[in-house]
Amino acid sequence: MADKPVVGLNDAAAAKNAVPVSRSKPAGNPIFRMLGLPNIRLKLPSRNWLIFLSVTGSFTTAVLYDRYHKRKAQQRWCNLVSHIAQEPLPSTAMPRRVTIFLSAPPGDSLRAARDHFHEYVKPVLVAGAMDWDVIEGRREGDVRAGLAEKIRKRRRKIEKAPTRDVDDDAAEEDLVQELRDTAGVKEDEGVQGDLILGRNTWKEYVRGLHEGWLGPFKPPPPPSAESAISIDTSESVPEQSSFAGDAIPKPDPAADSSATHSDPQTTEASDQQSQDKKDHAKEKEKAKQPTQTPPYISPSDYSSAPLPQSAPDVLPPSTVLPFPHLLGFFNTPIRIYRFLNRRHIADETGREVAALVLASHVRACRADAEFASSTDPDATPSSTAPQAADVVPIQKRWEQEGVLEGEERDWHKSAWQVGSGDGERVWKDGMVIDARIGDRMRQFELGADDEERARRDEGIDPRAKGVWDSVKELIGWEEDTSVKGWEHGLVGDESG
Questions:
Q1: How far is CA 405 from CA 114, 355, 409, in A?
Q2: Quick one: which of 198, 271, 273, 464 has the most CB atoms within 10 Å?
Q3: Which of 63-72, 349-358, 431-440, 462-471 bottoms out in mean pLDDT, i.e. has the lowest?
Q4: Please, what's the largest Cα pairwise distance for the chain?
Q5: Cβ(42)–Cβ(419) under 8 Å?
Q6: What is the C-alpha separation between 7 and 425, in angstroms, rounded?
Q7: Conformation bin of residue 287: beta by default, left when phi > 0, alpha when psi is -120 to 50
Q8: What distance lies between CA 191 and its chain's CA centroid?
Q9: Secondary structure letter of residue 120 according to DSSP
Q10: 411, 107 in Cβ contact below 8 A?
Q11: What's the pLDDT tens digit per position in 236-261?
């Protein structure tokens, strides 16, 4: 049996005093070490970083997703009408022209309506090679006045009625039209059509149609002479003080100047005179500004107004586009939701604009009548009573009255306030439609075959660049698809 080794005292002391050998940490990826890069150790971020990255990443993904499908929807409807732009057009013919009606939304400026038009409407119109005129309204009633004046000008030309004072814009339009007639350039004889943006513009459009076709040529008479005299009298007496009923005493020129300046009543009178002069100057400046044309006819007079013989049997068709516009700090969650779902607005708007550009289907506006029974339901039946109750229509509601009616809930509160102006509140008042005008109105409609073709050819243009393609182009990773010089070859080399 082998003897066990005996550990001496010296060996035990050496083992006790020995320094432990430390194991060296892994050097990491040798490729990174050769490139001079630090040893990056992957680890999960902290809780705060995870929350930040999750929120920002989710919002960014939602924005990119909505933008992708928005561009896809616009491209779908642009492809549907792009064949019109490929059709040849004679040099003596004008492209088809439509009229665009834009109005500033309640509580905001006209810029919001313009941006909405350029973002959602203009791409489809340009794809269809359309031309357009624009009637804009910066305040309530401008669109109504512009459309009514346009219709009255057309009526004067047809009925050969005496024209009013011609302004510079009208003279320029007449000169351009005369030059086109001399050169033999003709307008497009197809369906023209109108495009209205938003519920507030639609209400002014309907009011302008009725005023143009049912109203007179001459403007309404000015206010009564008594009211005008009272206004002039109040403006011509600036010395009258609003703080005291008595007239302001005039300073005595023989009095001492020091006493005059020290009199508080005289000082107050001079301040009041200067303030009245400033107010009078402001009123003169307001009078110099262009005023809005007052309405030529009231909605209550539609039924008694005669329809002119120049009125067509069918008015130009129209299409109304949604314009969701919500203001207010407390509506921020709703506004964020709408911002992340703009693809639905792009799809709906593109569909309606494509129907206007194609103009293949036009339908009449419908009118639904509500009915009521003239028989009391609580009365006991008798043998002499008729078997069927007499049913009579009590109200007739036109389709035009309910178009985009839900947008009124998002209007700013200033649209419902009663102002101290001329009393015309087109947005606040209800829509009044005369049967003679309502029966002549038409709406554009997209046919089932056109919509099926648009869904079948759905897709983004392969030449369009996405987000990743733009990033690669920015950092220089874009693939070069051009044919190199050595790839062209020489004709006839391979045959030998």
A1: 21, 21, 8
A2: 198
A3: 462-471
A4: 150
A5: no
A6: 112
A7: alpha
A8: 24
A9: I
A10: yes
A11: 434 443 333 444 444 454 444 444 44
Tell me: the pLDDT tens digits for 365-402? Answer: 888 765 444 455 455 554 444 444 455 555 678 889 99
Closest to 297 in 3D by CA, of 306, 286, 284? 306
What tens digit of pLDDT does each residue of 142-200 get? 999 999 999 998 898 888 777 665 566 667 777 888 888 888 888 888 888 999 999 99
Q: What pLDDT score was predicted for residue 17?
A: 66
Q: Which CA distances in Å does 291 have to 139, 181, 286?
A: 11, 34, 9
Integer angstrom CA distances of residue 318 from 195, 244, 415: 6, 59, 25
Judge whether 391 and 373 are in contact, CB under 8 Å: yes
d(CA 122, CA 132): 10
Q: Residue 472: its pLDDT value, please?
A: 72
Mean pLDDT of 431-438: 91
Contact 392, 371 (CB under 8 A): yes
CA nearest 42: which of 57, 58, 28?
28
Q: How many residues does the chain have?
A: 496
Determine the 3-state secondary structure of 62 from DSSP: helix
> 83: which 2 tokens?
């064949």
